[in-house]
């Protein structure tokens, strides 16, 4: 056999080995978007969605704390007691759920108040609809839709 041919074959095998070793590790760092129908609960996601201003800390607990702090500030900043509810002295706790999709956008906002106060529910939906784009959540190395729920309390002082 030709010595040049053997050298080329060794180089080829070396390059192929590098490709086999490198490609799987680099693709592990690129999240793949799942089927858009799949939804993961907020507290089940490996990496929760993040607000602008929150950075991945490496600690899930810190990421959740930053998310909760930012959403609380958002509610306080945008909260307006509905005039009709104020006049009629309507109080209540509205449970709001929404999806942060795999593009980081808020969708499917739903509100439920046990006494079915549409006025309070509408205000809760309005507040959530003002949320800006998030860094999407990640689960099992893939970008996912994440469902989040929280109460918003309407109390007259």
From TrEMBL:
What PROSITE patterns does the database record attribute to this sequence?
TONB_CTD
The UniProt entry lists membrane topology as: Single-pass membrane protein
Query: Which top-level group of life is the source organism from?
Result: Bacteria
Q: What is its main location?
A: membrane
A single MF term (Gene Ontology): energy transducer activity
* Entry-linked Pfam families: TonB_C (PF03544)
Q: What GO cellular component is one of the record's annotations?
A: plasma membrane protein complex
User: What is the name of this protein?
Assistant: Energy transducer TonB
GO biological process assignments: protein transport; transmembrane transport
Which species is listed as the source?
Answer: Neotamlana laminarinivorans
